[in-house]
Design goal:
By secondary structure, the chain is α/β, with parallel strands linked by helices. It folds into two domains: 74 residues; 113 residues. It has six helices and eight strands.
């Protein structure tokens, strides 16, 4: 065995070999994980886009037609009823277009079986929310027809009074002492006169940074696979020249 190769089998170099091997395996694994995330995001985007294109249906019909609530998420639904201004909460720590604010969520009593639906009526900038009187944030009175995107609630019981961290339907049902539908309706057509609350954006259907992250991890892996053998070759030659 040449002196160059013998040098590369010393304990310090063996540790270096192991570290580089770990680096290659790690970067490859991370790159594949990002590609997996990209595939999941593409599948999600495809499902959401296809459901956007489905015709608008009554929310009650959608709830009765599908066994799984997840099957009606991101469908456009409509419901008729009356808002109950006494049953209104604000989802805090939200932002839209770089502006901090809240989402206003109000219970709508439907004309069908007196079922209540939690309607996310839109975004209110925090400055408006803090300065406005309660009546200025109240929902429309009388019978209304609401059209919106069916979305899921989120489990999170944090909050105080009328301010909550998420739209937790179980918590809201207990807080309002009513039976709520198992999904949330995110209103599409809002008050065009006052401009408050503001319409919420549709779900983001971009692919995100997963592909670029995957490419970065594979570049790091390639640098290690090509660069490290070149370093070993140089060290080996230097050891031979010294003999």
């Amino acid at each position: 065995m040449s002196s160059g190769r013998h040098r590369l089998l010393r304990p310090s170099w063996i540790i270096s070999h192991i570290l580089v091997l770990a680096l290659v395996v790690s970067t490859f694994t991370l790159g594949m994980w990002q590609l997996s995330r990209l595939n999941e995001r593409q599948s999600y985007n495809s499902i959401v886009a296809s459901r956007f294109e489905q015709p608008t249906e009554r929310l009650s019909d959608l709830l009765q037609s599908f066994e799984e609530e997840s099957d009606i998420l991101y469908r456009v639904a409509e419901v008729s009823g009356e808002f109950d201004p006494s049953k209104q909460i604000y989802v805090v720590n939200r932002s839209q277009n770089g502006v901090a604010g809240v989402h206003v969520v109000t219970a709508l009593e439907t004309l069908e079986n007196s079922l209540f639906v939690a309607v996310n009526r839109g975004f209110i900038p925090r400055s408006v929310y803090l300065e406005a009187s309660p009546e200025n944030l109240s929902p429309p009175t009388g019978k209304v027809d609401v059209s919106g995107l069916v979305i899921a609630g989120k489990k999170d019981d944090r909050g105080y009074g009328d301010e909550m961290a998420e739209i937790d339907l179980e918590v809201l049902s207990d807080y309002w002492q009513i039976d709520l539908a198992s999904v949330v309706l995110q209103e599409k057509e809002l008050n065009a006169v006052t401009k408050i609350p503001m319409p919420l954006p549709l779900p983001d259907l971009t692919e995100g940074p997963h592909l670029s992250y995957a490419v970065q991890w594979f570049i790091f892996m390639t640098i290690a696979l090509i660069g490290y053998p070149l370093v070993l070759r140089k060290v080996s030659k230097q050891a031979v020249q010294k003999v």
